[in-house]
Automatic annotation (TrEMBL):
Database matches in InterPro entries: Ig-like_dom_sf, Ig-like_fold
Signal peptide bounds: 1-28
Entry protein name: Uncharacterized protein
Species per Swiss-Prot/TrEMBL record: Culex tarsalis (Encephalitis mosquito)
Protein keywords: Signal
Amino acid sequence: MNTQRRWSGCGLLFKIGFILLLAEVSQCLRITNLDVPQSYIIARGDEPPEDLVLDCEYELDVATAKGFVLKWKHNDLQIYQWIPSKKPIAFTSFKGHVDLEYSVSDDRFQKYRALKLTNPMANFTGNYSCAVQTYDENEVRSAHLQIIVPEVEFNLTYHRESNGSTVVQCAVSDISPKPELALFIDESETKEVVLTEDHVQGSYDVVLQHVLTDDSKDTAIHCQLSIPGTNYTKKREKMFHGAAFRANISTLQALLYALAAAVLSSTIRY
């Protein structure tokens, strides 16, 4: 009895495996690669914009390609459609931002599969999905694209307060999306900072300030700018010469005192 059950279970597993294998073999439409950049940097000023191309590579059995259509979606909203017997079309706010003449192949079923975006906008950030389908099959893949509007300024400075303390400041302005700043003192990141953030019309201004605990010694300072989820990073470095800085301050103070005394003496004389 146990032997019979064992063989019955093996037979069931064999049937399931055969069905799965048959399904795999019978798949005639399959997306093999979705090429969506992790991020894209919008050019500022007179810099010529780089091409932004999203590609959807797939395998298709032409014998079963009846009813084939390719669609691109942005955050689940359809923005592009191509049927091989027709010209591609763009939808919604992406009209005027899609190169409808761009092709990647002479193959009738591959020619207009890619999406070339012209003059991308900051609000083009989001999830992009490529959907290919026939009357019998449907395949979808998605990936995230982050549009970056680079900063106008990114500075690392230090100055002396009226109370005698030395303040290091790292500041970035007019950048999108929200960046992260990290301040390093002698190669060690400091968490003893005052963070100020301002968000206006989609752009961010971020400032980090740190008071040096010992401004009498030479100190290596650097600030790192990054945008989470992307490879966008920048760095500013500065050497703080403590003794020289204090000497310059003392000299300046002495000159100011001397100038004030001279002005006062001249005033009394007259």
